[in-house]
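Teaching note: in complex prediction, the entire set of molecules is handled at once rather than each chain in isolation. The prompt given to students was simply: 'Predict the structure of this complex.' The entities are:
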Amino acid sequence: MAVGIRRWAWPSELRKRGVLGINARNGDYVLLRNPRSFYPRVDDKLQTKIISHARGIPVPETYAVIERCGDVRRFLELLGDRRDFVIKPASGSEGRGIIVIVDREDSTFITAGGERIDVAEIRYHLAMILSGLYSLGGQPDSAIIEQRIVKHNIFEQVAVGGTPDVRIILYRCVPVMAMVRLPTRQSRGRANLHQGAVAAGIHLRTGQTSGGVCNNRAISVHPDTAASIEGLQVPMWNELLVAAMNLADGLELGYLGVDFVLDARLGPIVLEANARPGLAIQVANRRGLCPRLQFIDEQPPEMLRPEHRMGLIETLAEIG
Amino acid sequence: MNARRATSQIVVLLLVLGAICVALRAGTRKELQLVPGDTFWKLVYEIDYRAKKAGAKLHAAFPHDTAHSRVHQIRYPDPKAGQKLRISPAESREVNVIAQKAGSGRLTTEFEIHLSPHGGWRSESGGVALTAEARAGYLHAKKGIEVDDPIVIATVEKLQSDPASRLQLVERLFDFCSTEIGPGGKDAPADAVEALKKRVANPLGRARAMVALCRAAKIPARLVAGLVVRQGENVHPHVWVETLDGNRWEPYDPENGFSRELPHNFLPVRHDGVSIVRASDMTDVREVFNIVRIPPPAGAYVSEGRRLTDILDLTRLPLEMHEPLSVILLMPLGALLTCFVRTIIGIRTFGTFTPALIALAFVYNDWRTGIFVFIVAISLGLVSRTLLDKLKLLLVPRLSAILTLVALVMVFGVSFLDYFHLTPSAQAVLLPMVIMTMTVERFFLTMEEDSLQFAFQLLAGTLAVACCCYMVLRWDAVGRWILIYPEFHLFTIAILIMLGRYSGYRLTELWRFNDLAGPQRDIANGEK
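The expected output is the structure of the full assembly:
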């Protein structure tokens, strides 16, 4: 099957496959389609939540927002008697600074990784978040304490130590590519590709996964469980697509990545949005983004209206 | 695409503008003739010495700029085996050799000197504000200048008997030394007291006599050792006197009879001293000064008078400023390199300009010292960062603690290296402390959040780019050239703008997306 082992590709080969490079993404799409003034809508997860909420898109329930150091002491009080929750920096990136607590015994908390931490450590972590350690550009930040997502059982065999998420890339509010990111032991439960998580492409029309990628190399089974990552059906796929387009309309960003988690009870929930989504989605889907982006650009503006988008997705799914 | 068209228009405009500016400057540089009478000279120091032990030192002063003379260029040798060179032109105007072991050695240094009888350059002694202490130093007795000797006091009292202004008194003292003290041969006295007693002295004796008389009359005075520029091999240094008048040093040469204005070819080398070369723990110091006239070097010219357009000519600035100025002008090339590495190659580094700033710090220091201190600072920083992590400190105090540690490492690292004679120079390494601290912090976070391997990958990328930047910044030929043609940076901006619009693949992406370009195998297995 492998015809010759070459570790690199000629630019012409990538161009033929329509691969979008990071320079082209930044120069031709992000800079052109995403007005800088709208960035806070995605960089600050609180704003994303507010916009999502206003448009009726389900988001994790916010238990508390900690904005001042003084509030850190009131953490237990703010938490109430909730046993599981997530702490995340409002302006974090790449999943940095997120702690998932699955259970507690009084003031000792158990993380998703099985570690036991006490309330002092949580307070320290909150103070770190507020001081801007995890925020973009080191700006002072606030910490969000929110509802923990319960993993949907469809991914039980292929998500190790964490919650998988579904990333949709939308161009001019039309979904153009999708993937599901599955945590591995190497990624320590996080769904970040550069930390070793698995990504599997999703067929845009059917919502079924195809083969995936791990550490930038193509795979078809999960590296930890050896379960197949092909042919899994993402539940409520159409609802998910509709929610993604709805959010894109609200954020007014032309080139956008939206991350969903699938909750066992609530279905697709928006986790965050990203104005500079990564390019690994192309490797996961084993096809380039360029032809699909060009297809959108070739459409007359009225074809991009919400009522025509589902039709475009049908066509897009087969491009590339 | 509008932005694209505008970009190409601006790039073309910048390129044309740059070409015009370079051409204009090249043209004017050709047109500007040397002022008639201006001459260029090469002065060569050849100093042989025998060090008695390791650590023996030799200090060779180099010429000062005056209103009539300017050092156009200095060529230092590379330190030879068993030698350490310390060059600090900006402060001391000296080349210092420190012998690493006992034995003989040689120092050769070349200067290109531009003499102009018309003068008009900013003179170094053009305005000095002495501290009280320094002023007192120029009134003290010294060996050979016995200010308190009765004969000195008596002579001054005699010459001061008629009331006179300060200037008149200096003239009187000068006249006395140049006429009343007769010229003597080699055996004639070389110190003030004997010269005054015997009324005969060698040139040094006369100069010392004048300094002693001036100081006794409470007029700050000093000896100046210098060279008289004329063709010759093994030229002997000449000693004259300077007295402080208000805030200006005025020269007097009792030997040749010049007062207040010396011929333009008198080149002061060592202020407040009688020898150009000083040595400690050395024997057999033999100094030879050779002077030859040379044709005007390319790029050397003088414009007549002051013109506003001179502001655009950076080569007009004093020599000490040339090096820092050319490093500043090379910095954009470092930035250009950084852009290239990021957008064309795709190497990831800690912080965008961290590599360029580290390289900049290395330029001013010996790179071996720099690397040693860098590695020690980063590793100790990481160890302490790991320990500090247990204390759960807030961000800013924690960063400041690491910064303090980095500062201490920088100071004691240099001290350590100097103690063991491990580096050719013991200059303090001014690495950018904040950048170092942030590198430590980022390294630690990357290690924690991603992996040690990725952290090292970023560190290696940072160092590789820093190395390239260092080589660019150390590019002497380009540095000199860009000082003459700073408008070259119009091209730099044009290239930066072009890089800013580059939308092709990064080299690393050719590897990253390799699987995508494979022979349609994945597609064949897929849905199609």
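Point out the following to students. The mean pLDDT of chain A is 88. Chain A touches chain B through 44 residues (CB under 8 Å).
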